[in-house]
Every structure is written in structure tokens, then in C-alpha cells.
Amino acid sequence: MNVSKLDCNKIPASLSNERLKKSKRYVHQKDRYLSIGVEILLNHVLGEIGIYDPLFGVDHYGKPFLKNYSDVFFNLSHSEEYVACAVSNSPVGVDIEHIHDIDLNIAKYYFYGSEYKHIIHNKDKKKAFLNYGSLKRVI
User: Fold this and answer.
1) Interatomic CA distance for residues 57 and 3, integer angstroms
2) Is the distance from CB of 38 to CB of 76 less than 8 angstroms?
């Protein structure tokens, strides 16, 4: 979901007080939009599956979960002006990245030799770099 045109003066009543407080701590408006937008999207998706009363908790790793629906899992991501949400009946992950210019010289410091070779010999170096980077965050 693109949050760049989000009107913070028209925040849905379903937004939690915790999220509203958290969003106000951000200095940059873009970060406020991301924080609010990701919960709006999550509430929308949960509503699509009949969950209108989510109670959120946070585990010891800082990952949010639904206290009142232990069989529903979700994961959130944001980058630049987009937010993403995945909901499942088993643990799930989602990650979005804004594709920007990359200094490929740093690849030799962050990737194994075979990964680095694959990146620098790939026709689309930027895509290869981002693919490896995403995999390393997931595993």
C-alpha cells in the first residue's frame, strides 16, 4: 500500500492508541505515514478474514502478535512510501525494499566469495545484490 498520500487528519478509529503515540515520536512525516499506514493495512487485512477485535502483544524479540488469535500470524514491512503485510495460519514473513543505487563495492564485504562472484558476473547486478541481501535477512 502506498502511504504517501495518507491524510493523518483522517485517521481511522480502528488505529490503536499505542500506534498513534508511536507515530507521533517520529521526526519525519514519511515515518509517521509508514507507522500509521502499516497498522491501517493490517487492520484491513484482518477485517477481510473476520478479525475486528485484534489485541496486540509483543514477544521477547519485539515482534508483535495477536493475543486473542494464537492461530493467526502476521508480519509487516515498509520501505520509503510503501507498506506491506502478510497474514497466515502459520508463521510468515514479508520484506519490501526500495530499489536504489547501490555501491557494489560493499558486496565483497557482506557476501561469501561465491555470492560475490555471482553478483559481479550477473547481468542485473543490483537485482542479484538485493536478492542475496533479502535472503540473508530471512534466514
Assistant:
1) 24
2) yes
